[in-house]
Amino acid sequence: MTTRKLQQIIRSIPTSDGAGVKLRRSLGQAPGMRLDPFLMLDEFSSESADDYIAGFPDHPHRGFETVTYMLDGHMLHQDHLGNRGDLVSGSAQWMTAGRGIIHSEMPQQQSGRMRGFQLWINLPAREKMKPASYRDIPPEAIPQRSLAGGGQVKVIAGTLAVDGSKLAGPIQGISTEPLLIDVRLPAGAVFASELAAGHSAFVYVYEGALAVGPAHEARTLAAHEAGVLSAGDEVCVRADGHAAFLLLAARPLGEPVVQYGPFVMNTRDEIEQAIADYRNGQLV
Ligand code: MN
């Protein structure tokens, strides 16, 4: 086994999106800060309604997938296909924009904590114009397991190989084979799992800090930082105090990426077509 090392740290930066929701963006803060096929990762976390109450009113997407994973709070998703999904604490939403979707995500609370993530994953060129689809994943559909080394893991997408067995998440069959897991570790606990060789992978710490990589050359990854992992077929991290993190991996596409806001295509012509289609009411 080759243990992946911490190759690059992308510190998240405070920004806002939607109608003024405050968030921290790590991947996607600049075009060079993507990790094929991952385009963007936002973390939102606030106890103050002013930071989230405006929500994400109707807006379009084309050419990729958006994933929302809620830790705390309540949002309502609605889209042009007629889907309605309650995003409650511990739930996820997997939306394949394909040729186009218009949706909103609006807070269903006037106070209290709102915390979670939005992840954008690219689609291969041959799937960018497929019909949009949506999946609402309630908390009880996300398997959770205690880890041999201490702590717990939840598997949202893909199949995790850990402690000598496999744990399959509800999202399967995506062509980039994404793995998305949420791990909580007590102080000093070590988490190690297999990770497909050749897949891009990164860790995002949202509480505490981790030592990432083989024991003799581990590097520290702090809260609100994304750590891009080197090649290898195993990941190993140790909690530096209590820690909570996401681990993400997927098969890179190796295709050109041209992005204009919520449209992600392969060429400028395709972006101009997306803008024209949206203006003409023909995106979806
Ligand atoms: Mn959206």
The H-level CATH homologous superfamily, spelled out, is Jelly Rolls
Helicity range: under 10%
Report the C-alpha radius of gyration, rounded. 18 Å
Number of helices: 1
CATH topology: Jelly Rolls
- Name of the level-1 CATH class: Mainly Beta
Low-confidence segments: none
Question: How does this structure look, described?
Answer:
With 284 residues, this protein is mainly β. It has one domain: Jelly Rolls (Sandwich). Helices cover 4% and strands 51% of the residues. It contains one helix and 26 strands. It has one helix spanning 268-279; strands at 6-11, 13-17, 21-25, 38-46, 56-61, 64-72, 75-79, 84-87, 92-96, 101-107, 114-122, 133-137, 144-146, 152-157, 159-162, 165-168, 179-185, 190-194, 200-207, 209-212, 219-222, 225-229, 234-239, 243-250, 258-260, 263-265. A seven-stranded antiparallel beta sheet has the order 1-22-19-24-17-14-13, with no helix packed on it. Strands 2-3-4-11-6-9-12 form a seven-stranded antiparallel beta sheet, with no helix packed on it. Strands 5-10-7-8 form a four-stranded antiparallel beta sheet, with no helix packed on it. A hairpin with a 6-residue loop joins strand 20 and strand 21 (219-222). The longest helix is centred in the last third of the chain and has 12 residues, at 268-279. The chain is globular, with a radius of gyration of 18 Å. The protein starts with 5 loop residues before the first strand and ends in a 5-residue tail after the last helix. The model has no long low-confidence stretch (mean pLDDT 96).
